[in-house]
């Protein structure tokens, strides 16, 4: 048996820190924008009744690995990623990059990274910008093992 190790490094947050603040209506509307042909979501929105929406069940049945993966899809710049540490923690973050690997959508500053993370998290939660800033680790460094 062998063990693998990997690094999670950058600016980001642990998805469990935002999970208690998820707004089911916002999440259902976000997913409806992603899956406009989903009749169950359309019916929920039309009835304004989200009591039957199970966020985790919905995203897992649609190919998302975890909440951090969902948050990556909330970021419309395609510059964030997610990773897990093998111990139950999943992270939504922007990894450091080298200038020769940067795309046009790459953020130009730490402040821009933080603003992107805030914008993405607010798509499915009721957290304020300050609350999100409080859980963002600007020196995220975790070792994954599995």
Descriptive notes:
With 146 residues, the protein is an alpha+beta fold. Helices cover 38% and strands 19% of the residues. It is built from six helices and four strands, in the order βααααββααβ. It has helices at 24-34, 39-47, 55-61, 67-74, 110-122, 129-135; strands at residues 5-14, 81-84, 90-94, 137-145. It has a four-stranded antiparallel β-sheet. Helix 1 (24-34) crosses helix 2 (39-47).
Inertia-based shape: globular
Instruction: Name the helix and strand elements from N-terminus to C-terminus, one letter apiece.
Output: EHHHHEEHHE
How are strands sequenced across the largest beta sheet? Answer: 2-3-1-4
How many strands appear in the DSSP assignment?
4
How many helices?
A: 6
User: What is the C-alpha radius of gyration, as a whole number of Å?
Assistant: 16 Å
Give a concise summary.
With 146 residues, this protein is of the alpha+beta class.
